[in-house]
Design brief:
The protein is of the alpha+beta class. Helices cover 20% and strands 34% of the residues. It has helices at residues 6-33, 40-44, 60-66, 137-140, 275-288, 305-311, 329-333, 352-360, and strands at 70-81, 98-99, 114-126, 132-135, 143-149, 155-164, 169-174, 195-200, 208-219, 229-232, 244-246, 252-260, 270-274, 294-295, 298-302, 319-324, 340-344, 347-348, 367-374, 377-384, 386-387.
Length: 391
């Protein structure tokens, strides 16, 4: 990328002025000699930019369609605060610079631990006609009362159906029946570079729309074992938590959950839970109020190029087993320390995190197989998926 400083711009402008002056002198001399004939048509020709599309897209029609399904979420909270808590909720579980964007007020500090009451604000969106709403877990954490404010200003009481801290998702339900506008979750992943639109409640303003593109996929921000975030550059800030990110079809491709911000302000790096994850979690919360994930019972490490060379793998992939939990599903199947798990049900495991995500998708009790690399050979082992312990 070339950065043009003001001094360089001035120099370029000066060169153009000087060039124009030289041209003027030449024209004057030519006219005086009668030797220069001007072709006025040559100066009237428009500049043609072949293959360049200069018209930017308008999101107005799509905004009219989806905005009524997006709500502001207002939560009264109560929790027991320790002396050293700073009232930032789940901010502490993220690496430096990463923030989940909502605020609490009314903390009580000093003295013995005591109940702390506060308020938080976020965003959400209807996913069904009968009033189910998706938002972030950290927005409704420790909630004692939840209200939703619709795009037309109506206030609706809601209850928490279930939460999933591991993906930072929560499912709410409007307590009164009704016919609510809702949006669909996208069936596929967006491409890097696709236009997206974020709608939410930044700083409590409500009904705010920002646009950008998908910057990256599969981001691991260190918030949990199942990180698989979309990165977007649409402006999101405190209060956007739980709000949707739409594609140009008006489908939800992600739920905004965190921003990278050393200063606390927007710097154009935001992270959203992908729609595929949202769909799985919402279905489980709607059915059981909780999410049950598969469990294999191993401590795993990445397979580096050096490790792959040492154990005879053609390329670096899979998950190296550091230990197998005694009487766990993997140990019962015969998995040993030093094994490398390279596939699950025949599907290649790219890395350690990929193994965690693959196993988590299985319902506890599911019969499955894993492929392990041991002593220069592949082995197929069958096992019954266990239940992931509570967070």
């Amino acid at each position: 990328m070339t950065v043009t400083t003001p001094s360089k711009s001035i120099l370029k402008r000066g060169a153009l002025i000087a060039g124009a002056a030289t041209l003027g002198i030449g024209l004057a001399a030519g006219l005086a000699d009668g030797a220069l004939k001007l072709n006025h048509n040559a100066f009237a020709q428009p500049i043609q930019l072949s293959g360049v599309q200069t018209q930017l897209p308008s999101f107005a029609d799509m905004v009219d369609k989806v905005k009524p399904a997006v709500v502001s979420v207002r939560v009264k909270t109560q929790s027991v605060a320790s002396n050293d808590e700073d009232g930032q909720g789940s901010l502490d579980d993220l690496p430096p610079g990463l923030r989940r964007f909502f605020g609490e007020q009314g903390q009580q500090r000093g003295g013995r631990p005591q109940p702390r009451q506060g308020m938080s604000q976020g965003s959400g969106f209807f996913v069904s006609q009968d009033g189910y709403v998706v938002t972030n877990n950290h927005v409704v954490q420790n909630a004692v009362e939840v209200q939703l404010v619709t795009d037309d200003g109506k206030t609706l009481a809601a209850k928490v159906i279930g939460t999933d801290p591991r993906t930072d998702l929560a499912l709410l339900k409007v307590t009164d029946g009704g016919n609510y506008p809702f949006v669909q979750l996208a069936s596929g992943k967006p491409r890097i570079g696709d236009w997206v639109l974020a709608v939410g409640n930044p700083f409590g303003l409500g009904g705010t729309v920002t646009a950008g593109i998908v910057s990256a996929q599969g981001r691991d921000i260190g918030s949990g074992p199942y990180d698989d975030f979309l990165q977007i550059d649409a402006a999101v800030n405190r209060g956007n938590s739980g709000g949707p990110t739409f594609n140009q079809k008006g489908e939800v491709v992600g739920v905004n959950t965190a921003i990278f911000s050393p200063s606390g302000g927007n710097v154009g790096i935001a992270f959203a839970v992908p729609a595929a994850t949202v769909e799985q979690v919402v279905a489980a919360l709607k059915k059981d109020g909780t999410v049950s994930r598969g469990f294999i019972g191993v401590q795993i490490q990445p397979v580096t190029t050096e490790v792959a060379d040492a154990i005879g793998l053609k390329d670096a992939h899979g998950a190296l087993v550091a230990s197998a939990e005694k009487n766990g599903p993997a140990a019962k199947a015969g998995v040993k320390r030093g094994d490398t798990i390279t596939a699950v049900n025949g599907e290649k495991v790219t890395d350690a995190r990929d193994l965690s995500r693959k196993i988590a998708k299985f319902a506890p009790g599911t019969k499955t197989t894993i492929t392990v690399w041991r002593d220069g050979k592949e082995r197929e082992l069958s096992f019954e998926v266990g239940r992931q312990p509570a967070a």
